[in-house]
Amino acid sequence: MPSPRTRSDALVFFGSTGDLAFKQVFPALQALVRRGRLDLPIVAVGRKDLEVDDLRARAKESIEKSGTFDAPAFARLAALIRYVKVDYDDASTFVQIREALGSAKHPLHYVALPPEVFEQVATNLAKAGLNEGARLSLEKPFGNDQASARALSESLHRYFPEEAIFRIDHYIAKESVENLIYFRAANPLIEASLQREYVETVEITMAEAFGVKGRARFYDAVGAVRDVVQNHLLEVVACLTMELPSEKGYVGLRAERGRLLAKVRVLSAGDVVRGQARGYQNDDGVANGSTTETFAALRVFVDSPRWQGVPFFIRTGKSLPVTATEARIRWKRRDRPVLQDESAPEPNYVRFRLGPDDVIAIGANVKRDGERMVGERKELVLRRSVPEETKPYERLIGDALDGDPTMFADRVAVEESWRVVDPVVGKGQVFTYEPGSWGPVEASRIQPEGGWANPT
Ligand code: BG6
């Protein structure tokens, strides 16, 4: 196992011919090369019979499609890439990875493959001696419930210690999610008010205007709760509510996220409404009569002295009216005799737009001109997205190469968030909703007082 500060000296990239590689990873690799963060052999691994030039051409096409193609940076990237064909079930083929690695001693094995093959790949890496001194980075999902997540970690630990495992939840590495933590830490006034005495509700909406886009086979076995609530959205809850670490660096952040998730109350049937978009069943790969949810609304509680009793509302869905992820903290209203508004002024809020753009805004009330003490709501926008921001995959691959685990999900967080959702996954009725709507009408059972604030 490399010491935490040893930089990996090669990148072994499993799944280099897959969808994620095309959409996210090749553009991230070129960005890393451009920033001078990647100048190592890249051993691309796949099951297809390809020449290295075929793979380079695919990488080029992927980067061009992403709109970030940079000829000199791409030329440097292409020169780093080699290609090895393996059979994931056949340990003997892994020897070729060893050969392609040459003198490299501390490779990062980045596995962008379906979870069914994680253990097989880890075992075969070990059989070829490729676990020694190496790191392993995996794409979610990590198990499909708490027991299988635990079993997966235990099985990986036979070959890779926890410190060498980098579990990717790309939400944690979003600039906008990191800024949640910065914003809390750097603004003591806001931070002091993030507690049950002041906060009325917290709501998080992750809406996608598209459907399952050719991923139906994967998605139908998973559903919205497993796909994005267990991981991305519970991590966002953790970033909003965890205690800010007192120690410097990664240990603090990672450990606090896990500690917070351990306090999230396990869900029961009454806390969830599931929905399915009309027409989902016609997608190729969806089982006949599927009851997989493409929408979920959930009520979550954090049982810590700081957050006890504050409801967190989480809502996500495919085929909703917009593509936007937003977290909103609403503070309690206070009526004051001096005010002449018809009812107490609107609650103050802070709104974090987490994607696709990046905004922080505060809702407050100010007096209207005139002789009466009557006001109106204004929103102060503090931040808009920076186009040059580091994208999550660039950050994650760079950090894994550096051995910095801050932005990765650790074992505790993964298992605790499965504990929260396990009892409701796949359970209960699924209500149909129209594509382009905000989910089934039944979802109104789970919403903040005054209704959801729909992102626009
Ligand atoms: C993935 C899910 O983890 O996150 C997808 O599997 C989802 O279903 C995606 O669309 C959303 O990511 P982002 O960064 O576009 O919000």
Describe what is shown at a glance.
The protein is an alpha/beta fold and 456 residues long.
Instruction: Tell me the number of structural domains.
Output: 2
Major sheet: 9 strands, mixed
- The percent range for helix content is 25-40%
Query: CATH topology of the largest domain, anyone?
Result: Dihydrodipicolinate Reductase, domain 2
Beta strand count: 15
Rounded mean pLDDT is: 94
- Looking at the overall shape, the CATH architecture of the largest domain is 2-Layer Sandwich
Task: Output the number of helix runs.
Answer: 13
Whole-Å distance between the termini? 47 Å
Text of the CATH class of the largest domain: Alpha Beta
Structure description:
- This protein has 456 residues and is of the alpha/beta class.
- It has two domains: 158 residues, 3-Layer(aba) Sandwich (Rossmann fold); 251 residues, Dihydrodipicolinate Reductase, domain 2, CATH 3.30.360.
- Helices cover 32% and strands 21% of the residues.
- It is built from 13 helices and 15 strands.
- Helix 1 crosses helix 2 and helix 1 crosses helix 3.
- The longest helix is centred in the middle third of the chain and has 19 residues.
- The chain is globular.
- The site of 6-O-phosphono-beta-D-glucopyranose (BG6) has 6 residues, from helix 10.
